[in-house]
Amino acid sequence: MNNLLAPCKLPIPSGPSPRRINRTVQVGAVTLGGGHPVVVQSMTNTDTADIAGTVKQVADLWRAGSEMVRVTVNNPESAAAVPHIVEKLRMMGIEVPVIGDFHYNGHTLLTNEPACAEALGKYRINPGNVGFGRKKDTQFAQLIEFALKYDKPVRIGVNWGSLDQSLAAQLMDENALRAEPWEASLVLREALIRSALDSAERAVEIGLPRERIVLSCKVSGVQELIAVYRDLAQRSDFALHLGLTEAGIGSKGIVASSAALAVLLQEGIGDTIRISLTPEPGQSRTQEVIVAQELLQTTGLRAFTPMVTACPGCGRTTSEFFQELAGVVQNHVRAKMPEWKVSHPGAENMTLAVMGCVVNGPGESRHANIGISLPGTGEAPTAPVFIDGEKALTLRGENIAQEFVALIDGYVEKRYARTAG
């Protein structure tokens, strides 16, 4: 009889798996693949022909931490605008690679606007939308030839919603001849992977080096995405871009993207990611960048900004002050990080704690670089502050928030100041 009370024999995870070692791809000044840190990418939702609006949004995304930004290039006006967008960004000191997203007519747009082909940092080609019938191979080849001419990398991005229908039909016919046919979902999964791999091999035949190719196979289902990328990672050594397409709005999009990408990243799969959130009305596009950064940071893969631990609150925390302080601290360190990144490297690794009562407050605060334990219901109106595990001082009165933020700034100045030379 099994002893249900026997000690658990499951191994304790020690962190994410080592990065999947594959080909390194250079996109402007950004290096992805080959075991390098996972790169955060985003995409504008402006009309690319609106130069001022697109420049502003690209700049906002870059300031939020996006290391590559994709723009739609869908008509002559947007193609003509791209060189001006890139030039204005450079004048602002923003060297972020701008990626052109092409569907249907990319070959024509780049033929008519060679300055666009030269200004872009990378091209994104969807094999399902590059062309149809006999024109497909010719138009795909034209795009690859532009990449060769201007020394640009290419992402071959297959999407569940725009899958190459001729390939899907071919695989369905082949499946029907099997002694034990696969389920239709498995055939479609194979069609996604084959579309990406076959297109990559076609690009190589035309002359594009493997070191300039990134692959993606996006779907909107969590389990499907995990299965597709596990298979794709086993069958190729190309750099991989991860993203759950059409993830959704608000918490649903955040949870779905995190659930899918966290599993793959934990297994060492993925070299660049995008969180494809539908912005809520009035919400900044930069939310998808923040979520991507927080996903990478909470999984231990990268550090972007100091992490703030805060308790959820309970009956002991009847005051809302700890919630307000946690928000103040989070906003402060995120706003300061662009400056600290240059003047105080390493500050992004700092941990902070804002706790609401004596139960877990002192303990959590001791685990952080700087932590504060605010008074809960019935506790004395004092807030002990812990620095590097030791109680350093106690704050009281009306200016706790300002004083705690000042302590954080002082700690950063002392511990992370860049040394001369």
From TrEMBL:
According to UniProt, this protein's pathway is: Isoprenoid biosynthesis; isopentenyl diphosphate biosynthesis via DXP pathway; isopentenyl diphosphate from 1-deoxy-D-xylulose 5-phosphate: step 5/6
Start and end residues of each IspG C-terminal domain: 308-409
- Enzyme Commission code(s) on record: 1.17.7.3
Q: Which reaction does it catalyse?
A: (2E)-4-hydroxy-3-methylbut-2-enyl diphosphate + oxidized [flavodoxin] + H2O + 2 H(+) = 2-C-methyl-D-erythritol 2,4-cyclic diphosphate + reduced [flavodoxin]
Q: Which UniProt keywords apply?
A: 4Fe-4S, Iron, Iron-sulfur, Isoprene biosynthesis, Metal-binding, Oxidoreductase
Domain named IspG TIM-barrel: residues? 23-292
Q: What class of enzyme is it?
A: oxidoreductase
Q: Does the keyword Heme apply?
A: no
**Cross-referenced InterPro entries:** Dihydropteroate_synth-like_sf (IPR011005), IspG_bac (IPR016425), IspG_bac-typ (IPR004588), IspG_C (IPR058579), IspG_TIM (IPR058578), NO2/SO3_Rdtase_4Fe4S_sf (IPR045854)
Query: Does the keyword section mention NAD?
Result: no
Superkingdom field: Bacteria
Chain residues that bind [4Fe-4S] cluster: 311, 314, 357, 364
Give a single Pfam family match. Answer: GcpE_C
Q: Which cofactor does it need?
A: [4Fe-4S] cluster
The record's comment on protein family reads: Belongs to the IspG family.
General function of this protein: Converts 2C-methyl-D-erythritol 2,4-cyclodiphosphate (ME-2,4cPP) into 1-hydroxy-2-methyl-2-(E)-butenyl 4-diphosphate.
- The protein's name is 4-hydroxy-3-methylbut-2-en-1-yl diphosphate synthase (flavodoxin)
Q: Which gene encodes it?
A: ispG
